[in-house]
Specification:
Layout (H helix, E strand, L loop, with lengths): L7 E7 L3 H16 L2 E3 L8 E6 L4 H13 L1 H6 L4 E5 H7 L1 H6 L5 E3 L7 H5 L5 E3 L20 E5 L1 E2 L10 H4 L4 E2 L2 H13 L4 E5 L12 H9 L6 E5 L8 H9 L6 E3 L7 H6 L6 H14 L4 E8 L6 H14 L3 E6 L17 H24 L5 E9 L7 E5 L4 E4 L9 E9 L4 E5 L2
Parallel strand pairs: 1-2, 1-3, 3-4, 4-5, 5-6, 7-10, 10-11, 12-13, 13-14, 17-19
Antiparallel strand pairs: 8-9, 15-16, 15-18, 16-17, 18-19
The protein binds iron/sulfur cluster.
The site of iron/sulfur cluster has 10 residues, from helix 7.
């Protein structure tokens, strides 16, 4: 008797944030259980998933143009299945099927668990319902890298920043039980992972049987995990208790990503951020008092509706004053369905671009100065793999999340290594291993 086994292949393309990257790992985990294997080329796939992001208009445009390009492939191979996932799927739902008839399935971030059932249906499935049970689901995760892992600790957001679509697409905050998170991280440790990043839209407001500090304490007790990171923190919910935990827990790294968005308290109010610049400044002081060598990175939105020259100067002053280690800055992009989309005072693209370039230029000098100050120091790095920019080098990160490239061999991947910093660049460091 002749047995044949045809393995199916999936190609997943991910847009946007780390949360989406991790959602794609979950989709891959579910699909592996269904007999699929991941492919790097859509031409080799039986199923193509677009995991979309709607946070900026550019990402949405890019998604639709990539989806358009796949049409000819679907025409040649009608059995090819195409799915749209993520925030655009959640927001636009059935409208995607109408707009792009070659799409078979549409499912939002709260409905990833339905993927297997969807594939058993032939076509035109839309799954975008609110899912209050999401935090109780322990979905399988397929992780490519064996050194660092991302772990969801909560879903959704309650903050309703006026420019953000996340509370509408990912729903209200729901925290995973701490025991489930502990079990997942302990499993990662026994599989050789060295670093975990705890993921949520606002990790500081994590709450199950313990709060976020309590969760950090629990994870800090897991042998084999050398480094614990977390994103994203909301300044409003950054408590003294959490700052003390960061200081005292030896595996928690000395880095925090704390989105400021604007240095103007007036704009922060329009953004509904729940803090003033002065509040933010005080929290930064407390962080630096507790952990003097902490690195602080942030997000800045350039050219929010109604941003005057004075508001903009307040942001420039904040960037100069705080001296962040790094900034992710973007031009404001009003998103349909958010409060900010209907606000008055839209700035021209030219002004937004000018402001963005100036912020980045100032930050580049600060980042370089901060990196330069590390020259000659010895840093402990976790080696992650081959450098993306120079295949002859390895790359790793300091505890403060600075990228260090150095000459080394593959045997070092996954190891903690001490390196002397021999050269500083704007966005990375060059190192030399020391004994
Ligand atoms: S905190 Fe604000 S910006 Fe962040 S996800 Fe929630 S609503 Fe969006």
């Amino acid at each position: 008797m002749l047995f044949s086994f045809m393995k199916k292949h999936v190609y997943i393309t991910t847009f946007g944030c780390q949360m989406n990257v991790h959602d794609s790992e979950k989709m891959a985990g579910i699909l592996e259980q269904e007999g699929y294997s991941l492919r790097d080329n859509p031409k080799d796939a039986d199923l193509i998933i677009f995991n979309t992001c709607s946070i900026r208009q550019k990402a949405e445009q890019k998604f639709y143009s990539e989806l358009g390009r796949i049409k000819s492939l679907k025409k040649r191979r009608p059995d090819l299945k195409i799915a749209v996932a993520g925030c655009i799927a959640q927001q636009q739902g059935r409208a995607i099927l109408k707009k792009v008839p070659h799409v078979d399935y549409v499912f939002g971030p709260q409905n990833i668990h339905m993927l297997s059932d969807m594939l058993r249906t032939n076509k035109d499935v839309v799954a975008v319902d609110d899912n209050p049970e999401i935090a109780e689901l322990d979905l399988p995760v397929s992780r490519k890298e064996g050194v660092r892992a991302w772990v969801s600790i909560m879903y959704g957001c309650n903050n309703f920043c006026s420019y953000c679509i996340v509370p509408y697409t990912r729903g209200r905050e729901r925290s995973r039980p701490s025991e489930n998170i502990y079990r997942e991280v302990a499993g990662l440790a026994s599989n050789g992972f060295k670093e975990v990043t705890l993921l949520g839209q606002n990790v500081n407001s994590y709450r199950s049987d313990v709060d976020f500090s309590g969760l950090l304490k629990k994870i800090n007790s897991i042998e084999g995990i050398d480094r614990i990171r977390f994103v994203t923190s909301h300044p409003h919910d950054l408590s003294d208790d959490l700052i003390i935990s960061m200081k005292e827990l030896d595996r928690v790294c000395e880095h925090i990503h704390l989105p400021l968005q604007s240095g103007s308290s007036r704009i922060l109010e329009l953004m509904n951020r729940g803090y003033t610049y002065e509040d933010y400044r005080r929290k930064v002081e407390r962080l630096k008092d507790a952990i003097p060598h902490i690195s602080i990175t942030t997000d800045i939105i350039a050219g929010f509706h109604g941003e005057t020259d004075n508001d903009y100067m307040a942001t420039i002053n904040a960037v100069n004053d705080i001296e962040f280690d790094g900034i992710f800055a973007f031009k404001f992009s009003p998103r349909p369905g958010t409060r900010a989309a209907n606000m008055e005072g839209q700035l021209s693209d030219e002004i937004k671009s000018e402001r963005l370039s100036e912020i980045l230029e100032i930050q580049d000098k600060i980042s370089f100065m901060k990196n330069e100050a590390l020259r000659g120091s010895v840093q402990e790095i976790l080696v992650e793999g081959v450098s993306e920019t120079d295949k002859g080098k390895l790359t790793g990160r300091t505890r403060t999340n600075k990228i260090v490239n150095f000459r080394g061999t593959d045997v070092h991947v996954g190891q903690m290594l001490y390196v002397e910093i021999v050269e500083a660049r704007r966005h990375s460091l060059e190192g030399r291993p020391v004994r």
